[in-house]
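Problem statement: downstream parser choked on a complex file, so we are re-checking the raw output for the adenosine monophosphate run. The parser issue turned out to be on our end (a line-ending mismatch), but while we're here, posting the original submission so the record is complete.
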Amino acid sequence: MNLYALLESGFPKDKSACAIETHDGLYYSWEDLEGATSKMANLLLALDLPQGSRVAVQVEKSPEALFLYLATLKAGLVYLPLNTAYQAAEMEYFVGNAEPAVVVCSPKNYSWVSQVAKKSGTKHVFTLGDDRSGTLLEKAVPHLSKGKTVKRSDDDLAAILYTSGTTGRSKGAMLSHANLGSNAKVLKKFWAWKKGDVLLHALPIFHVHGLFVASHGALLNGSKMIWLPRLDTKELIKHMPRSTIMMGVPTFYVRLLLDSSFTKNTVKNMRLFISGSAPLLTETFNSFKERTGYTILERYGMSETAMLTSNPYEGRRIGGSVGLPLPKTKVRVIKENGKLCGVNEIGNVEVKGPNIFQGYWRMPEKTKEEFTKDGWFKTGDVGRWGGETSGGKVPKEYLCIVGRSKDLIISGGYNVYPKEIESFIDDMPGVDESAVIGIPHPDFGEAVMAVVVAKSGHSLNADSMIANLKGKIANFKVPKLIVIVSELPRNAMGKVQKNILRETYCT
Ligand code: MLC
Ligand code: AMP
């Protein structure tokens, strides 16, 4: 079934009801949402693209950007969202690798993105601004505001999400209509979406969390969304009294707690706060409960799998645990020797289920490596069943994520792959070598830090290196701190000992 048809089955009968209310006071009815989606879908269909064609999108968040996603599904094409922070070199890689038939970018980026698109053979480049400007909407105007949803089977691709995966360069995780649809249905029930729910939506819509988990939930439930372009604590506090659900990365909760105007009164209408994408500190979990009386529900997932586990809606939510495997999803924790871990034993987390992706785009070998022979996906996360957190004893059916076997930093919910940053730093003049690690950060959970060695006879300046990197890579990947050292610690095999760097800089 086409995922759009599934989502549409949840839209309310009263099409004049509000589907999206924006921060600047605009109201979009369900009729507006359906009409704009159909117009854009009809525009895409008129391009007469072969099945499986990719629509790559790097635009600022707006209701129209969401309609473009829905239109791509409705037209049976494959949606490929890209972080707005990506710079030219990163875009060149994604567009070159995915070879999209259509690229949609912000009007302000048209000159360089259209060059990138042309280079990889993309024929159709449109623009879409966050103020209803751009050629996409202009070209969609003459098209009908009605139309059939293109039939798609369960295994057909709905979206490709680029992720650093467990190792190596960014890979496109291919998600089918059924992968996303099954997860949306499970979450609707598990989190007890209700009539009258209003979602406070302040996440970006180019990743699983904001695009799928949050938006799908509201759409499938026919619920209104209060649509904020980005996290702004004051705006959250302003709109929360009229909302019932909010989803955020841990930074959302850290920042809310820093604001003294965030009180019990702010949350009086809320029924559910959900956190995910990165570990929520038990300290934040406890302080939030103390301040508001609400227990944050933490869940765990990935681009390759959508949501895997969740603390319960009814029942005990435990700080420091990501909860129970979701219905239909199987989770196991495995020792290095392949045997199942017992309670409180640490091992690798592997998963199975209808939500698990179809593989990495054009990387069959890599895909094969990331699955076991009996079909379990290796998440690259390290966990245990039960045990103890600072919140107390954890029942044996609850999963705790205790670390990662993959060399990954998660900063404010965004993934950063150290090797990618090291290669940019190593290419800078005067740099001999570098090592990138994650260090604790009070706002982002983890932050990127680089330890750099200069070539002999050269001197390096950390500030100018940071300024230089800002023009080359997405800002969230730029190290918040660069330290220049005379040499990196190495083991007997000559491998850089990042554990020693972490011990040195993480205190
Ligand atoms: C912004 N900056 C970041 C950053 N976001 N640096 C590190 N990590 C981040 N996440 C940069 C800015 O460019 C700026 O740099 C400086 O840090 C301060 O920025 P800010 O104004 O404080 O940031 P803000 O715009 O408020 O954004 C912070 C944030 C945002 C946490 C709200 O990053 C965000 O929305 N994160 C959510 C990511 C997300 O949706 N992840 C889900 C992935 S899906 P300068 O140099 O200009 O000062 C997934 C699966 C799952 O993981 O389970 O959900
Ligand atoms: P991404 O590749 O961007 O989809 O990020 C997925 C990764 O985010 C997972 O493999 C985990 O490492 C991490 N993650 C997501 N949710 C949680 C959580 N609640 N606690 C700890 N880590 C999480």
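For whoever reads this later: The chain is about 30% helix and 25% strand.
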